[in-house]
Every structure is written in structure tokens, then in C-alpha cells.
Design brief:
binds 4'-deoxy-4'-aminopyridoxal-5'-phosphate, Aspartate Aminotransferase, domain 2, 355 residues, Aspartate Aminotransferase, domain 1, alpha/beta, three-stranded antiparallel beta sheet, globular, 12 helices
Length: 355
């Protein structure tokens, strides 16, 4: 599970541990209002360099990165309302919950969160008129549209047609609506491209990253944007958390991103993808299995009905892998350090436990 998809380099990686040790020997934290420090500057330069954005805001977690992205768009436009798609997941805080599928895990809090504008899930295959709803929604006053590029993660582990995303961006631009991509789950190679958006060859106005940013060692999110949006926000952006740009998190994030980029991550994710595909394929013939699908280093067995976790999880462990299913989804997002043998252990445990 890579600790909810974050520990891409596995656990206790010596390079990440060394970066943390070195930073704690310098200083662990200092406020980031009116002060700056090398770990934040170096990480910001690295992130802007690899994404082509101009500015970065460091947030405390993925959920807070989503709050920050939405608030940036609201502050820049003066419009409160946001457009999104069903089937999405953006986090646990109030703004993030408001753009998460209302029929999903946050249904209980429906009355507590702002009512946003939702359109249907992006389609796995294109059909005529599948953006008509979006076109109609974009006529309303909106601060932005927010989506997870290509893969909807915690909302259902499903992927959709990249051309739909490209068209969505085109329509939003034509309507003068800002575009936010939540790359918190999809970023850092997980889908086979560095970013989910690379499948569609598009760029948003604002992009959120988190999870694998620190290689799963510390909580940190980053929100990237353009000078243009920065200018529109005007003076100070009204968000100032106490632990903004925590130096330990920034130092280990830089080490993790450099470690990823210095290796043939594309080759590794491609190999893992093929092994997941081969290893999980036999599950397609099991009774009760609706679909087996693989994208990048994401392997999913979707069941016809919700699984009974109390039965299935001990079975998975007995078969050799700790996997945490949810609802109808038994899935894996293994660390990129997994060998061919490791992947065989994981896929074998999933297939045998379900059988
Ligand atoms: N956005 C997406 C796409 C996510 O998958 C998640 C976490 N599952 C979040 C936001 C929230 O991140 P965090 O749990 O770090 O707050």
C-alpha cells in the first residue's frame, strides 16, 4: 500500500533518513512568515524546475494543499463556488470534502460543507456530448474547476479518457475559469508518467502535490502556480499555518524527489505495471470479480460486491501481503523499490486470498 501511496522508495531508505538526520542537526523548525530557509527555497526551485510553474506554497498535508488551491482561486477571482466531477476524492478538511464525491466516505458531512457544482464522472470511453454538462456548468460564476488528472483514487480507483481532460481544460480556459489539478495521488510517476496530466498534455493554473512528495516520511503538501495567478491574488495570500514549509519535511522531500528523478523510474514503473498485469490477470476468472485493471504502478481488482474486510484482510496477510481493501476494491500501489519477486508475492496473495 506504500502507506497510502506515499512511500515510493520503501521504508527506511538510507538517502531519506540521511536527509532528515542532516536537517535535524541544523534546525528542525522555524516560522515561515517573514523568514525563509534553504530547505524550502531548494525544494521550491526543484519543484518549479520540474513542473514549469513559477510559485510554490507549502502546505501541511494533501488536504491542506487542496484548501490552499481553492482559496487561491477564490481570493484571485472573488467568486466562492467551485466546479468538480463526481467520483473524486480531495481530502478530509471542509473545503476538500466539499469537492469530494458527496456519495462517498464524507456523505455524513454533506450538510456541513459548502455546496459546490458537480458534474458526472469523467468517462472511461468517450461518447458524443460527454462534455455538454461541463459546458452548461461553466456558464455559472466559478472560482475554478478541480479534478484529479486521469486517475480518480480514493473515490474509486478508476481512470478516464485523457482527451476528456484536455477538452475540459480547453472549455474552462474559453470560459475564463481557473483549472486546478490534484496530483496528490497521481504525481511522482505512479501512473507511468511523472504527472497524471502528462497523459493529456495539458497544464492547469494550480497544481497540488503531496503524499509521495516526502517519500512517505513526513506530512507535506505543495501548491504550484503561475506568476499570472500570483499577480491576480494580489498582496498576501490569506493562509498562514504555523508549520508552513517545515524544514525537516522540505529537506526530506528534496531528497525524495531527487532520488526519484536520478533513477530510471519510468522503466521501473513500466516493469511493475507489466508484472501487476500478469500477476493479477488470473483474478479476472474468479467468481465475484467484476474487473481487473492496471495503470502504471496501480493494480486493482474490482469486486461485484463490497468485500468483508474482517475476512479478507487476514486472508491476504496469511497469503503473504498486507493489503488494505476498501469497498469493492482490492488494490495495490507498491513502492517502486519492489523487485519482480516482491510484486509476485503481492499479486499472488491478492489472487489466492480472493480465490
Ligand atoms: N487528494 C487526493 C487525490 C488524495 O488521494 C488524498 C489522500 N488520499 C488527498 C487529496 C488528501 O491528502 P492527505 O491525506 O495528505 O490530507
Amino acid at each position: 500500500m506504500s502507506s497510502w501511496w506515499a512511500a515510493i522508495h520503501g521504508y527506511r531508505h538510507p538517502v531519506l533518513d540521511a536527509a532528515l538526520h542532516a536537517q535535524v542537526d541544523r534546525f528542525a523548525h522555524v516560522m515561515f512568515g517573514g523568514l525563509t530557509h534553504a530547505p524550502a527555497v531548494e525544494l521550491a526551485e526543484l519543484l518549479t524546475g520540474i513542473t514549469g510553474f513559477d510559485r510554490v506554497f507549502f502546505a501541511d498535508s494533501g488536504s491542506v494543499a487542496v484548501e490552499v488551491a481553492l482559496k487561491m482561486c477564490v481570493q484571485a477571482t472573488g467568486v466562492p463556488r467551485v466546479l468538480t466531477v463526481r467520483g473524486g476524492y480531495h481530502g478530509d478538511t471542509a473545503g476538500a470534502m466539499s469537492v469530494t464525491d458527496p456519495d462517498g466516505m464524507h456523505g455524513l458531512f454533506r450538510g456541513h460543507v459548502v455546496e459546490q457544482v458537480f458534474v458526472s464522472k469523467p468517462p472511461s470511453e468517450r461518447h458524443d456530448g460527454d462534455l455538454d454538462e461541463v459546458r452548461a456548468a461553466l456558464t455559472r460564476p466559478l472560482a475554478c474547476v478541480i479534478v484529479e488528472p486521469i486517475v480518480q483514487g480514493a473515490g474509486g480507483m478508476r481512470w478516464y479518457d485523457p482527451t476528456w481532460l484536455a477538452e475540459l481544460v480547453g472549455l474552462a480556459r474559453a470560459a475564463g475559469v481557473l483549472v486546478v489539478f490534484d496530483e496528490i495521488a497521481t504525481g511522482f510517476g505512479r501512473t507511468g508518467q511523472l504527472w497524471g496530466m502528462d497523459h493529456a498534455h495539458v497544464r492547469p493554473d494550480v497544481m497540488c502535490v503531496g503524499k509521495a512528495l516526502t517519500g512517505g516520511t513526513m506530512t507535506l503538501g505543495a501548491v504550484l502556480t503561475t506568476d499570472e495567478l500570483g499577480e491576480r491574488i494580489g498582496g498576501a495570500f490569506m493562509h498562514g499555518p504555523t508549520f508552513m514549509a517545515n524544514p525537516l519535511a522540505c529537506a526530506v522531500a528534496r531528497a525524495s524527489v531527487e532520488l526519484l528523478l536520478d533513477q530510471d523510474w519510468r522503466g521501473t514503473v513500466g516493469r511493475i505495471s507489466q508484472e501487476l498485469y500478469d500477476g493479477l490477470a488470473p483474478a479476472a476468472d474468479l467468481p465475484g470479480v467484476a474487473e481487473v485493471r492496471v495503470m502504471g504502478a496501480i493494480g486493482v481488482i474490482e469486486l461485484e460486491q463490497d468485500c468483508d474486510m474482517s475476512v479478507l484482510q487476514p486472508r491476504l496477510v496469511a497469503e503473504g501481503a498486507w493489503v488494505r481493501p476498501f469497498g469493492r476494491l482490492v488494490y495495490t500501489m507498491p513502492p517502486y523499490v519492489c523487485t519482480t519477486e516482491d510484486i509476485a508475492v503481492i499479486t499472488g496473495a491478492m489472487v489466492r486470498a480472493l480465490a
